[in-house]
From TrEMBL:
SUPFAM superfamilies: Bet v1-like (SSF55961)
GO cellular component: cytosol; endoplasmic reticulum
Name the UniProt record assigns to this protein: StAR related lipid transfer domain containing 4
Lineage, top ranks: Eukaryota, Metazoa, Chordata, Craniata, Vertebrata
UniProt record, GO biological process: cholesterol import; cholesterol transport involved in cholesterol storage; intracellular cholesterol transport
GO terms of molecular function: cholesterol binding; cholesterol transfer activity
Length: 55
């Protein structure tokens, strides 16, 4: 069985990825759904097959 990954390295990579997602420019996002209370935005992911979602 494989050993556990380096937790500190994994946490740093995850933190940097989330910061990168947070800093994506507004013009890259498209409205996926809009109601009177909520707007859901999406952007094609560059890392996996699918979309990033922002609410």
């Amino acid at each position: 069985m494989e050993g556990l990954p380096d937790v500190t390295s994994f946490a740093t990579k995850l933190k940097n990825t989330l910061i990168q997602y947070h800093n994506i420019e507004d013009d890259k996002w498209r409205v996926a759904k809009k109601t009177k209370d909520v707007t859901v935005w999406r952007k094609p992911s560059e890392e996996f097959n699918g979309y990033l979602i922002a609410v």
